[in-house]
Design a protein that fits this description.
Elements (H helix, E strand, L loop, with lengths): L1 E9 L2 E7 L4 E6 L5 H11 L15 E9 L10 E9 L4 E5 L2 E3 L1 H8 L3 E4 L10 H12 L1 H27 L3 H21 L5 H13 L1 H33 L4 H30 L4 H21 L3 H19 L1 H47 L6 E8 L11 E8 L7 E2 L6 H15 L7 E4 L8 H15 L3 E5 L3 H4 L4 E10 L2 E8 L2 H13 L4 H11 L3
Length: 542
């Protein structure tokens, strides 16, 4: 519900704050005090159009702000949502939801969840034909919900299958072209005969090849030094130590150490000799390594950053080739399943259409009864339910639902959006809302001009309907009718004062005594004992 509304610089409203309540909120007051400006401000906050002529004289911008209390909403922790719209004289807009900037269209869509303004055509879900099927379905209830859920599962699968067919569609020429390309790529990777680690091994070998002359030269020197000098010198030294080892333990120990060194140096010499043989490469071998590295580099550039990715791509190609070669049979299976799904959907759609057609008859009769109660005796609501062509499947099936009305005998039925009279529109919406009160999820309903051209009896019935709706919704009503004002749970007086040649709108929530005086003023133009007695009678108080 709207708990607080703040308006700044709109028309004669300079700075106005109204705290609204649950239930039926009635706004009355003298002509030209700004009652309609309050409704206009709500319309602006709901994303409606704004004329810069509405900006108060001398101001650069107008601001409308509201705090909406909405339990269990997803937009705030404390259940309060603050909506702000500021419109500048140059036409620029600033719209915010809990401080977050949004576009006017985003604001308009967001506010349709919370407020319907009857009397302004651009803020009502009931005037959107696309919403009519939802109202009808919610009215019908559980029987339709169960069957609709079954349909939606099939509809989801139907779309999945249709999308698969679209993705799988390849004409013969494209199929051949794609197969040629994939087979070429597969052959290129297979012919390379690469294994994980080949690139690192070959790079190491290539590095050795590039430095083979340098390696060979230095290994020759090392081998010569070890074989021809070091080993012979150590061997001669060992023989000398053997001759004196018996003359002391220290010589015996050094002999053992030197023999160990001899064996180690001999082993190193053998390794160096082996390294010398290993670094021998002919030109053909060098060329093969370089060609293989170039081939791997080319494959990496085309198919992956490393050999693992290249081999993974090869497996992907194999599967894709297999798919393309078998795509016709795959598509046939998909088409078969889709046709079966479609037949099931059509059958369910026919059943839903029957339920909707029957429900529409009952709903329109209930609405027509309400219209008569509201002194719209010649008005007749009809709900058209049409089964559409099969190719027009949507989330709700194949049914098109739209509300039509004829307001006078002999007139053709027309869409709700084509009703011109604001008061007539408000009463028609009140009739519909009365029937749909239990299922309408929009919590705040605003009615303007609802008492235009109606008698006391009809006004009493309008008031009763408003009270009925207010049991489940917050209702804001601007009225000139004493009978309707008497039904209010919370009554507000909209007045105006003049100060230094400027007019200002004021608002006051009335206590019970003030409510009776206001009802008396509306009914007779003055507060007298007779008009107060009449007010108490309307108010049903002694």
């Amino acid at each position: 519900m709207i708990s607080t509304l703040h308006i700044k610089n709109i028309g004669i409203i300079e700075n106005l704050t109204i705290d609204f309540n649950e239930g039926l909120n009635i706004l009355t007051g003298e002509t030209g005090a700004g009652k309609s400006l309050i409704i206009n401000a709500l319309g602006i906050l709901a994303g409606g159009r704004f004329s810069r002529d509405m900006i108060r004289k001398g101001a650069n911008s107008s601001v409308v702000e509201a705090c909406i209390y909405s339990p269990n909403n997803l937009y705030s922790i404390d259940n309060n949502i603050v909506i702000t719209r500021e419109v500048y004289f140059n036409g620029r807009n600033s719209c915010k939801i809990n401080g977050r900037l949004v576009t006017v269209n985003e604001l308009k869509e967001f506010m349709t969840q919370f407020i319907n303004i009857h009397g302004q055509h651009d803020n009502q879900n009931l005037l959107n034909p696309l919403m009519h099927i939802n109202y009808l379905d919610e009215y019908i209830g559980a029987d339709l919900t169960k069957i609709k859920n079954e349909y939606r599962k099939l509809y989801k699968r139907y779309n999945e299958l249709s999308n698969k067919l679209k993705r799988n569609y390849i004409d013969d020429r494209e199929k051949e072209r794609k197969l040629d390309l994939l087979n070429y790529q597969l052959k290129e990777i297979q012919d390379a005969k690469i294994k994980i680690g080949d690139d690192f091994r070959l790079q190491k070998t290539h590095e050795i090849m590039k430095n083979s002359e340098k390696l060979k030269q230095n290994l020759e020197i090392i081998d010569n030094n070890l074989s021809n000098q070091a080993i012979d010198s150590i061997s001669e030294s060992i023989r000398c130590l053997e001759k004196i080892s018996g003359l002391g333990q220290q010589y015996e120990n050094k002999l053992i150490e030197l023999k160990n060194i001899y064996y180690e140096v001999q082993e190193i010499s053998n390794d160096i000799n082996y390294f010398k043989k290993e670094i021998f490469f002919d030109e053909e071998e060098r060329e093969n390594v370089e060609n293989k590295l170039t081939q791997i580099y080319t494959l990496k550039r085309k198919y992956g950053n490393n050999i693992e990715e290249i081999l993974a791509y090869k497996e992907k190609i194999k599967k894709e080739i297999e798919f393309i070669e078998n795509v016709d049979s795959i598509n046939e299976k998909i088409k078969k399943e889709r046709n079966i799904t479609k037949e099931q959907m059509i059958e369910i759609c026919k059943n839903m259409n029957k339920l909707r057609a029957n429900g529409a008859k009952i709903l329109q009769e209930e609405i027509n009864t309400e219209l008569k109660d509201l002194e719209l005796n010649n008005a007749k609501m009809s709900i058209k339910v049409e089964l559409m062509k099969e190719e027009r499947f949507n989330d709700n099936g194949l049914t098109n639902v739209e509300f039509f009305i004829s307001t006078n005998k002999g007139e053709e039925e027309k869409e709700l959006t084509k009703i011109i009279s604001g008061g007539e529109m408000s009463r028609i919406m009140l009739a519909i809302k009365t029937v749909l009160a239990d299922i309408d999820k929009v919590h705040t309903l605003v009615f303007d001009e609802i008492d235009t051209g109606i008698s006391g009896k009809a006004a009493n019935m309008v008031g009763e309907k408003l009270k009925q709706i207010a049991n489940r919704h917050q209702v804001l009503v601007i009225t000139h009718s004493a009978t309707i004002a008497a039904k209010g749970e919370h009554n507000y007086y909209i007045g105006k004062i003049i100060n230094k040649d400027k007019t200002y709108t004021t608002v006051k929530q009335l206590n019970e005594t003030e409510v009776l005086e206001e009802i008396a003023r509306i009914s007779s133009g003055d507060v007298t004992e007779i008009s107060l007695a009449h007010a108490r009678e309307l108010r049903n108080v002694s």
